[in-house]
Amino acid sequence: MKIYLIGYMGSGKSTLGKILAREKNMNFIDFDEYLEEKEGKRIADLFKEKGEIYFRKQEACYLQELLDGFDNTIISLGGGTPCYGDAMQRIKAAEGTSVYINVKVEELTNRLSSQRDHRPVLKHQDTPEKLEEFVRKHLFERSFYYNQADLKIRVEGHTVAQLISELDEKLF
């Protein structure tokens, strides 16, 4: 069994994935960490030194590695991973189940406000208003891809334990 968690940055994919993997005795891969390990650099440094085009090309290659291998694994994909090239088509065609972790714009903005320095695409969103506008626009653009997931989980008003329970019920 393979589960691909998709959704916007800050949606809780890694948090939920780690807990669910531990509870179900599955492996867990955070795709951002996987990519950083393969490249030997942090994503922020890759963006700065080689640019987003290089990053997205490498991301597509490493995504294929994850799609082709790693059974009994929950994979937390990067926020943009399903939104470039044919990535979402490849995810849908691969063995496994994709799950969209859907979080409202206001909650995402709240979560991301303290993480701007660690997320290259948020670096220039220096006011709460700019950040919310950016997240709203970005989420709108990406929702076409996210909504193609096999399952959708709405985070609104739920605790982590409730979300894990919902994931457990829908997936197992």
Please give the largest β-sheet: 5 strands, parallel
- CATH homologous superfamily designation: P-loop containing nucleotide triphosphate hydrolases
User: And the CATH topology?
Assistant: Rossmann fold
Morphology call = globular
Oligomer class: single chain
- By secondary-structure content and strand pairing, the structural class works out as alpha/beta
In the CATH classification, which architecture applies? 3-Layer(aba) Sandwich
Number of strands: 5
Strand order of the largest sheet: 2-3-1-4-5
The whole-number mean of residue pLDDT values reads: 93
The number of distinct structural domains comes to 1
> Helical percent range?
40-55%
User: N- to C-terminal separation?
Assistant: 10 Å
Radius of gyration: 15 Å
Measured by DSSP, the beta-strand proportion falls in 5-15%
Poorly predicted regions: none
SSE order: EHEHHEHEHHEH
Number of helices: 7
Provide the CATH top-level class: Alpha Beta
Description:
About 55% of the residues lie in helices and about 15% in strands. The chain has 7 helices and 5 strands, in the order E-H-E-H-H-E-H-E-H-H-E-H. The protein has one domain (about 1-100, about 145-170): P-loop containing nucleotide triphosphate hydrolases (Rossmann fold, 3-Layer(aba) Sandwich), CATH 3.40.50. It has helices at about 15-25, 30-40, 45-70, 85-95, 105-110, 130-145, 160-170, and strands at about 1-5, 25-30, 75, 95-100, 150-155. The protein has a 5-stranded parallel beta sheet with strand order 2-3-1-4-5. It is globular. The model has no long low-confidence stretch (mean pLDDT about 95). It starts with a strand and ends with a helix. With about 170 residues, the chain is α/β, with parallel strands linked by helices. Catalyzes the specific phosphorylation of the 3-hydroxyl group of shikimic acid using ATP as a cosubstrate. Its EC number is 2.7.1.71. Monomer. InterPro entries: P-loop_NTPase, Shikimate/glucono_kinase, Shikimate_kinase/TSH1. It catalyses: shikimate + ATP = 3-phosphoshikimate + ADP + H(+).
